[in-house]
Amino acid sequence: MKRDVGVIIVAAGSGSRTASAELKQFRWVAGKPMLLHSIQTFQARPDVAMVVCVLPRQYVGDPPPWIFQSDAERLLLSVGGRHRSESVANGLEDLPDECEIVVVHDAARPLVSTETIARVIEEARKGNGAIAALPVADTLKRVDSSGKVVVTVDRSGLWRAQTPQAFPRKVLERAHREAREADRMATDDSGLCEQIGLPVVVVRGSERALKITEENDFALAEALSIFRE
Predict the structure, then answer these.
(1) Does the predicted TM-score (pTM) go above 0.90?
(2) Is 127 left (phi over 0), alpha (psi -120 to 50) or beta?
């Protein structure tokens, strides 16, 4: 199989909303360090040419040794930026030229399934940007600064964006280039594409792809890890 997929795992955050002094992405969950889950899951695909882990600067030259419990020939370490978009851009620059499809994933979602990864890559091969997402099931309320409910928001057509997100490389490079030139940012890469009218489609994500943000999320991820998609 042609190896034409590059993966950027964003792991440059400080994890300040958890109670531990250790970096969140280095903590163990479901039997191994959080970041290692994602590295090994993506490297299990035969079409993945390279996985770039974007880390805080101080760890690029001295990473934790367990990170090499992976295919070291398909692993690069890149320096994180001042914000997420800059970190992704740094990882994008480090991908080898043969990576025509680029997948961006958050290290904080260690339990992403192979099925979800396959769905976003399939769409990217069609020329689309693709994001994993789940439809909103809860009733949504907009509130003011005092906590008073202002209005109930119609949830039809609303989805909760996750990662991975996959793009043709030229599409993602254009989105980042034009964002830098216009001094624009977005909370994810699909947002950069949307800002300039590039097509992005949604594929079904998974509840297992929980984003570990706060301390209680570690216990929830442990519980979810026993379930398959």
Answers:
(1) yes
(2) left
